[in-house]
Amino acid sequence: MSKLNIKDRKILYQLDINSRQSASQIGKKIGMKRDVVSYRIKKLQEKGIIRNFYTVIDASKLGYISFRLYFTFQYVTPEIKKEIINYFIKNKNVYIISLVEGLYDLITIMWVKNVMDFYSFYEKTQMKYGYYFKEIKLVLYLQLFHYRYSFFLDDFERKDRDIFEITGGGKLVNYDSVDISLLNLIASNARMPTIKIANKLNITVNVVNYRIKKLKELGVIQGFRIAIDISKIDYKLYKIDINLKEYKYSELILNYIKYNPNLIYLNKTVGHADLELEFYVKTINNIHKIMEDLSIKFPGVIQYYTLFNIHDIVKIKLMPEI
Questions:
Q1: Residue 263 pairs with which residues in a beta bridge?
Q2: pLDDT (tens digit, 9 = 90+) per residue, 151-169?
Q3: Residue 81, exposed/middle/buried by CB under 10 A (0-12, 13-18, 19+)?
Q4: 23 — phi, psi (to 5°)?
Q5: φ, ψ for residue 163, nearest 5 deg
Q6: Which of the pair, 57 or 103, is modelled with greater confidence?
Q7: What is the pTM for the complete model shown?
Q8: Which helix (H) or strand (E) element contains residue 92?
Q9: What angle do CA 125, 131, 136 make, to 5 degrees?
């Protein structure tokens, strides 16, 4: 496991706020020279702690809806499991793939234009691999809230926890082929230099800057973040699905729990739990303490909860390949 000193943690936090920031911009904010910042970012990449820099894209504003599928396997060999995972990785509409320990084995989230597009994918998947699925749970995915990596800091400002990115919901926007090409380029490479984007798209740097600014204003681009391999820094990702006595308490709990620096994702869905929370923590005991705290703060409100460990995220590209 790699141990991060405070300098590396501050750099990671700044990259998570905006991974398109230059080394010079980051250095000014944390009191470090540009060359030192660049060197440390390179080292973090070489160690595999930084997997990639991705753009938070809300494809719902491009006319897409989202579904999540939970899979429980049966009769699988390591080779078959790898084949199934690669099948989903190659699918242009699947944008998050998580490997799970506990209740499920695999979770996929995908963008589709309509229900029939989803059914076509579902039918094809069943025909190809249905024998290996003991159970499939389908959920309509409404919104994903992405919270700051505040756990990297010894002290964080509460106001930072009020800032987050959202994928899902909102009005449709007009877009053209240049917008789509631009989004596809930066979806999994948010730090791609502007000049390189311009060259690939055969447009000027000014047009690239204008397009990115416009897509941010429209809410299509929600932010630029980092994907990290938390196993390299001795963290784990746990998901807690909470069912409440009455749904009306959900906003009260959310307004409280969002100030926990380890909360990374909040999922809003139809057909699953009332609250779906994801945390980066050191041990499962940290999760138990979080739930104990919630039960004390909101007595009699939580009916029951289930949790499981997401031990790897093998794909995160929040943009369908249009």
A1: 279
A2: 999 888 888 888 888 888 8
A3: middle
A4: -60, -35
A5: -105, 125
A6: 57
A7: 0.91
A8: none
A9: 60
Q: What is the Cα gyration radius of the chain? A: 20
Tokens 């000049």 belong to residue: 195
Q: What is the maximal distance between C-alpha atoms in the chain? A: 60
What topology is assigned to 1-47 in CATH?
Arc Repressor Mutant, subunit A (1.10.10)
Query: Judging by DSSP bridges, how do beta strands 133-147 and 164-167 pair with one another?
Result: antiparallel
pLDDT (tens digit per residue) in 219-232: 999 999 999 999 99
H, E, C per residue of 144-177: EEEECCHHHCCCCCHHHHHCEEEECCCCCCCCCH
Tell me whether residue 1 is exposed, middle or buried, using C-beta atoms within 10 angstroms of its C-beta: 0 to 12, 13 to 18, 19 or more: exposed
Q: CB within 8 A of 216, min separation 6: which ones?
A: 222
**CB distance 212 to 223 below 8 Å:** no
> Residue 154 phi/psi, 5° resolution?
-70, -40
Q: Which CATH number fits domain 235-311: 3.30.70.920, 3.40.50.300, 3.40.309.10, 3.90.1150.10?
A: 3.30.70.920
* Helix extents (H) in the chain: 6-17, 23-30, 34-46, 78-90, 115-129, 177-186, 194-201, 205-217, 250-257, 284-297
Identify residue 249 by its one-letter amino acid code. Y
Looking at the chain, which residues constitute the CATH 1.10.10.10 domain(s)?
Answer: 1-47
Domain with CATH 3.30.70.920 in the chain: 235-311
In the block, residue with structure tokens 């709990």? 253
C-alpha 33/C-alpha 28 separation (Å) is 8
